[in-house]
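Recall that a protein's primary structure is simply its ordered list of amino acids. Everything else, from secondary elements to tertiary packing, is in principle encoded there. The following example makes that idea concrete.
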Amino acid sequence: MNPRTHSKNSTILSIFLALALSAIAASASHNLPFRLGDEGTITFTSPSTATTAGTGNATHMGRITSDGSLTIVGEASCTGNEVGFAAEMQDTFTAANGDKVMTAITMQLCPIAPGIYHGIGTYVVTGGTGRFARATGSGVFDGTGNFNTGTIICALNGTISMN
């Protein structure tokens, strides 16, 4: 093999390898901290289903609105012989520019006062739109619902990857 051809091939191979590694690094997902706080309303549409709506703030999103649906899927064991309930929730959080993050939340809710429940659980990011189109992530859920007044407050704390 001609030394010039060998050198030229080595240079081309080096450039190709550098470009491939850059593409892999650029497409790798980065887990970023994600925190969301939301306050709003809950409206029961049947004994086991409800809709929610609210406003709040989230990292990487700024001011948000929320829209969700909750389904009671069973009972939860709570301290002191109290009976709570297990619930699943689908929630969409929308940033001011219209980009959305969708989540699935699984929680256990226990009474802390008549008609007031504290919920803990986990969330998973199931998708999104705009810059969150291929988002993934997960973390913990913490919230309180006052079913006497129809108000809720919740927080998500975990990570999000905007692939």
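Residues 15-28 have pLDDT under 50 and may be disordered. The helical segments are 3-27.
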